[in-house]
Amino acid sequence: MKLLSNKIIFLTGGSRGIGYECAKAYASQGGKVIVASLDKKDIDVVIEELGSDHFGIVCDVSSGESVRNAFETAVQKYGRIDVIHNNAGIADPSCQLHETTEEQWDKLMNVNVKGIYYTAKFGFEYLKQSNGCILNTSSIVGEIGQELHAAYTGTKGAINALTKSMALDYAKYNIRVNAISPSAVWTPMLEKWNREQPNGTRENMALYLNAIHPIGYCPQGDVVADVCTFLISDMARFITGCIMPVTGGAELGYRFVQNGNSINDVSMRNNAS
Ligand SMILES: NC(=O)c1ccc[n+]([C@@H]2O[C@H](COP(=O)([O-])OP(=O)(O)OC[C@H]3O[C@@H](n4cnc5c(N)ncnc54)[C@H](O)[C@@H]3O)[C@@H](O)[C@H]2O)c1
Asked: Can you name the CATH fold of 8-185+220-248?
């Protein structure tokens, strides 16, 4: 028996990056994945790869009407929803809070935070019927902070608080609510963030991103997808309100560094005699 056999999973932002890795992992464990994302071309490619049990819907999570339509279409096709994975997110801008424009602030809040409000508003009744679960994609920077990224980190802190409060409210309906909290993961979002960093930092970014993880490297999205698969499966049936770090230890205490790099860097370990 596969971990997600016949679960109907509404996954936002599943057309790229971490969401794409989740879509593949869920499908491989028997889930039926609804990829609700912005870009039709990317969605079509993912659905072509996953197969005809799965379904793509163009959906903007920052629009209530778009989210409501997406749920209606999904339920017409599958009859129910067992899981909502709120993964869609944006990370712009890379700057201090006072440099953030109102337009950037509103867009971040609307996609990263209000999107979760909309999927709860229009998806809750379906989850109540299925005793399903919600998974939110947060970020470790929502807990520990990040330079030149204040507005983004604020959205992720909000997601952490929402996750806990929703878990409390929805426990009586037997709906679990958890969050996944990655550190850096190589995706189109991280590549873009990398290009936006100040001169002198960009060039060393891969080294830096390896060094911030005590486990020694900056991963791809599969490491996150595996933990998401567990959290939305019945294996995690007694876990709710959890903000699960998938960080290779990036948030843990004081570290030894040498020339700006962790002395625990994998390449340095391999070079050690
Ligand atoms: N990559 C990282 O280092 C990292 C680290 C921690 C957390 N995260 C979080 O993981 C999630 C996925 O990030 P990623 O790195 O894969 O990003 P990405 O940019 O590679 O992919 C984002 C996905 O979200 C979709 N999306 C964006 N705006 C949307 C909207 N308004 N409506 C619907 N879909 C929308 C995109 O189409 C795309 O499929 C985000 O919530 C991000 O904040 C990423």
From this structure: Rossmann fold (3.40.50)
Percent of the chain exceeding pLDDT 70 equals 92
Predicted TM-score (pTM) of the model is 0.95
CA atoms within 13 A on the CB side of 72: 6
Q: Are 171 and 240 in contact (CB under 8 A)?
A: yes
SS3 assignment, position 252:
coil
Of the residues 10, 11, 15, 16, which should be mutated to test ligand 1's pocket, given the most ligand atoms within 8 Å of the CB? Answer: 16
Phi-psi region of 263 (alpha: psi -120 to 50; beta: other; left: phi over 0): alpha
Give the amino acid at 183: S
Encode pLDDT of 171-213 as tens digits.
Answer: 999 999 999 999 999 999 999 999 888 776 766 888 989 999 9
User: Which atom of ligand 1 is found nearest the CA of 66?
Assistant: 32
List beta partners, residue 262: 257
Q: Which amino acid is at 237?
A: R
With beta carbons less than 8 A apart as the criterion, state whether 249 and 215 touch.
yes
φ/ψ of residue 86, rounded to 5: -85, 90
Q: Is 240 in the pocket of ligand 1 (CB under 6 A)?
A: no
Ligand 1 centroid – CA 35 distance (Å):
13
